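Hi V.,

You were right to ask for the full record rather than a summary. Here it is.
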Amino acid sequence: MSLIQRQTIVAGLRPLPAGRPAVEFLDYLTVEAGLSENTILAYGRDLREFLIYCRDHGLKEIGELAVHRVQLYLGELARRDASENSAKRALVAIRMFLRFAKLRGLIEDDGAEVLESPKIWQRLPTVCNQQQVLKLLEAPCPEEPYYLRDRALLELLYATGVRAGEAAGLKTTDLNLDIGYLRCFGKGNKERVVPVGKVAIAAVGGYLRDLRPKLAKPRSGSFVFLSRTGGPLSRIEIWRLVKKYAVRAGMPRKVTVHTLRHCFATHLLSGGADLRSVQEMLGHVDIGTTQIYTHVDHERLRQIHKKFHPRP
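Predicted structure:
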């Protein structure tokens, strides 16, 4: 994570009860656990919210942490209408912290046997049809100063299914446009190679040739997507760009960078791709995560029903 992000998390944790062990815990995650920067940031925020709750309910030192406090906090999250996914992530962060505190001898019991993850209902992702995605890809106007970059970014996101953070970290050395592949580093810094289609290759090639040299500054490094000031586009800036063009294209409000990832997977499966190949291209460790996309292609299911049911 960046120095500013780390300083913000540390500044928020230190004044709280158990703040110092919490900072040491984040150091442990960074150095030894091999988690991604975004995961560590999320765990830091979750842990801070939990410790604020504990402070407001009388906790003064880490030795007073007990399982019942965690259970009460989960109840508080439910009253706040926090999503089940958010509650699950918060519980994972808290359990890891308690386990860390027990290993350091700061608490006697981490409550691992008692604390259970809340049941997560599987929610189907937002997926747009191919005509809607085409409108999004064509939303940037050629007259705009960053048209080449934005069109290349959108085409690459849809062509490869990479996450916003993966696109932000993409470097020119990770691209092989002659062969049509890119290399990216996903969650846990796991490397994977993903094919790139001809349309995206042409869009990215045009950007690298005609616009990126004009944006590049000494501090740009070899990052592919650059801002107007020459720095690499951040994950947040990529999210904002996709939101901007989604609104322009008249798409649903829920459309995000991750929607393009969902569309990438769903459209591949509807075209006949096998699940294992899609799993590998998405970088999913568990194929169960990929299987959700078999439930969202309603048109394909309708065609199968029409073709094979005796009374369609």
